[in-house]
Amino acid sequence: MKTLFLFTLILQLACFIFAKTNSLSGNRVLVILDKEEDKKEYSIFFKSLKERGFDLSYTTASNEKLEIIKYEESLYDHLILFAPETDYYENDINAKQFIEFIDKGGNILLAANENTGTIIQDLLYEFGAKVDEPKFTVFDNFVHNSTTPNVLAIEELENKISLDKLEAPVLYYGTAIKSSNKNPYAKPLLVGGPAAYSWDDTVVNKAPLVTGNNIVLVHTLQAINNSRIVMTGSTKMFTDKYINSPVKINDKTYKKSGNLDFITNISKWTFQEKKVLKVVSSKHHKVGETERPEYYTIKNNMHYEIEIAEYNDGVWQPFNATDIQLELIMLDPYIRVTLKQQPITNPNSSTYAIDLMVPDHCGVFTFKVDYRRYGLSWIKESDVIAIHPLHYNEFPRYLIQGLPYYFGAFSMLVGFIIISILALYHEDDSSNNKVNKEASTKKKTN
């Protein structure tokens, strides 16, 4: 019996040591709940996270030992905020500290509901969004689960960030998120249908404040430092009940909802398990050479190439795109050109390259690739190098554009030589001179 217990303990320890997560940000996840008993409602979702190698820690917003940053260091890599109704977090944790956590590279998955407290409201405001009025939920009298009329059944994605399409409808019951549309780094992932509206349990006696596609159900944000945030107005979409619930829309019937597949994919995106780009290498040099020069001379022919890899589910693979651009900048871009993807020779990355002529302008230039496409992590690669003018012995002796000036100068020179020769070697006729002298003498005597 002792041997079996010891073997089990060693096995568990080995699994803990060698457990590997696919997240590039780390595997430490803190789950903050309103109440400890709420943990049972999300068992399937939490189990899927553990199977992917995450180390989950659970706490409540009222826990006196609650901490996310200590000695200016993040204690966790990711946060799951399932405590929307709490108005006060212990240890003065507020929206400002959550923003600091994001600035340090952390990722957040948060869920609100129809009774959202001030902490989550303040945090959403920082992200350029807000929840609808208290007690207001989203309804759609045309697109909903037939067995539960108050529950929306969403079949299409607004933006294909984490997955391409939904295999089954996503069940949603919760409040509406209203986006200010002023944050260029935020995009909706799920929105309401044309007939959706937000209202409370009372009779609708006036036009709702938010309707149709203006109702955001799941909102995403990717910060400048590539931290990722997912916001939703429903905690119930993560529950076991909604994951296992059958769905019926008109004549279509599904044994299970698409909630598990959807929340799995959005959590993978949030925790940086997919859609992550990195620059493997970049280089530039003169055509025909291999080493980076100390400087370029105007009108030099140069070669630039950059190697990019994409990370998905634990695997680095070639990244395919047709819109990666190189800019040669001195205050403003002098050249902006699209890089061409080269034949793939490395199974883990792809190379983009271009041959071009450097600008006919001397100065200090920045060679920059700044690629920002929503859903993918931003990449920015730059190098600063000088472009010199031509040396005195590198200028061309004659230019085709100067032919008229050359002709004028040489014609003047030839004319001057001819006139000089005529002036030097021309002699007057002597007989004509005598006649002219006699004629002038006669005129004087007369």
Automatic annotation (TrEMBL):
Keyword list, A-Z: Endoplasmic reticulum, Membrane, Signal, Transferase, Transmembrane, Transmembrane helix
Pfam family, one: OST48_MD
An individual GO BP term: protein N-linked glycosylation via asparagine
Coiled-coil residues: none
Gene Ontology cellular component terms for the protein in this record: oligosaccharyltransferase complex
Molecular function terms, GO-annotated: transferase activity
Binding partners and assembly: Component of the oligosaccharyltransferase (OST) complex.
Similarity comment: family membership: Belongs to the DDOST 48 kDa subunit family.
Name under which the protein is recorded: Dolichyl-diphosphooligosaccharide--protein glycosyltransferase subunit WBP1
